Amino acid sequence: MELETVLLEQSEGIAVIRMNRPREMNTLNFQLTKDLLKALEANWDDAAVKVLVITGTGKAFCAGGDVAAFRGAPDIGDATRQMTKDFDPLVSGIRRMAKPVIAMVNGICMGAGLSLAAACDLRISAASAVFRQAYTSVGLTPDGAWGLTVPLLIGFGRASELVFSDPTMDAKKAYEIGLVNEVVEDAELENTVRKRAQRLAAGPLAAFAVAKDNLNRAMLGLLEAQLEQERLGIVRAGRTADAREGIAAILEKRRPAFRGE
Question: What is the CATH number of domain 6-186?
């Protein structure tokens, strides 16, 4: 299997998918999203793989969508529609996978990266990691079922604060509000996640699969509806003047001047 932007490792029943665009902070472009989906599917029915870990290389887990993909796009809304074609199945696949999936948050986690981490079963974070909703600050709206998974983790009120205020949170704050399960020193992250994954791989895998399915029963119908609602939402937001201004501001490295249009 050829993967251009992902590193895939398998050993001792554990598969590790590493997003590998470190210079771009592992931002999601069309190729990375496709490669992540391919890697997920490759491990779906592999009996040798008991636990899946998703992480990034370099200083970021995933800093969101690659706004460079929008450069010169005549219709940002259509560009976001194209990007969700593989991102939505990726999020759905993580939830439907009958194996534990751990997000090893090694650094910056924002935008679509936060949606990706929130879809996983567990999130273990490096102490230096930072978290941010990020979408609304560029005139877009969260996608990847963010509006379902994040409120389920941290509550409706806190999720609303992230949408409207878009604060940047350190790992300690993310732990305090329930966004991540554990925070460890950076140097211990790989070892901690490996040990946790090993314990899971040696556990009652059939029971884990049934239990995950039971957890999903309460949300999967909502998940598919939410993915579609958020897909339509980000397309609508992408067609606004504010979205064009927000993307232009990032590319030009300045503060956006929104007009509410």
Answer: 3.90.226.10
